[in-house]
Structure formats: C-alpha cells, structure tokens
Amino acid sequence: MAKISAGLLMYRRPGERPVEVFLVHPGGPFWKNKDDGAWTIPKGEVDPGEALLAAAIREFQEETGFTATEPFVSLGEIRHKSGKRIHAWAFAGDQDPARLQSNTFEVEWPPKSGRQQQFPEIDRGAFFGLKVAHEKILASERPLLDRLEVLIGD
Fold first, then answer.
1. Is the whole-model pTM more than 0.90?
2. Predicted local distance difference test score (pLDDT) of residue 154
3. Taking a C-beta distance cutoff of 8 angstroms, is the pair 69, 20 a contact?
4. Number of folded domains in the chain?
5. Which of 16, 36, 62, 122 is the most exposed place for a label (fewest CB within 10 A)?
6. How far apart are CA 129 and CA 51, in angstroms?
C-alpha cells in the first residue's frame, strides 16, 4: 500500500511583486549537491488515525520551526513516482528563511561505516517566484504550484 504524506505550501505576495512560494531543500548527504529538481514543500507521513490537514500542519512545524496560520486552501492530491500520495494545502505567510529550524534524522554515514550521524531533515528554505520554483521543485510536485497559481492568480 502506498504511503500517505501531507504538507503545506506557504506563499506570499510582497508588495506589488508577483507571488513567491516557500520551498525547502532536503538535508543529509544524499541531497547535498542537488539543487534544481530537488526542493519540495514541507511535508511528512500521516500518523495512523491522524487527520490529513493536522498532519500537514504538524510536519510544517517540525520541518521548519514555523507556525502555519489559517486559512488553508486545498491543493488536492499528487503522487510521487514511488507511488506515495501527497495531500497539500496552501496558506499565506511570510517567515524569514534564515530562521528555519528543522528536526533531525539519523543515518549510517558514510555507507557501511557502522557510524550513525545526525542530519537536519531540511537544511534550508527559500522563497522563489513561480517560474524559478518550477525549476527548483521535484517534478512530481510541480502541479501544486500550478494549482496555487490558478487559485490565487498571478
């Protein structure tokens, strides 16, 4: 059975400028040298019995240290190549990416070394205009940007 995750896409419209979206870059050694096509929305797996939106809000907090605020607008569901189902919502917000504080995970690194190392789940976040965001985000998550653009116009 495919895993289910939920996440939030924060956006802002600074002054008269076009919409910008907040994306995060996965932490750890596997993503270290990847940029275009590697960024994502803050998201994570839904716990058994947990409401999808509640999971999205929790994961956003855990991965960024930021508090998400209502209203939330559904962006629907997408699927990653792995089959994982992602449910997403958008909300207006304006946090300072320099203040991002992510939770961590542990992995054996280097491989087969027997040494466990901790890495931040998210190593950085940034606001991007929609055109640049389309280049930065995972291909499977691009429809979320398109849906946001339709919903709020730009």
1. yes
2. 54
3. no
4. 1
5. 16
6. 30
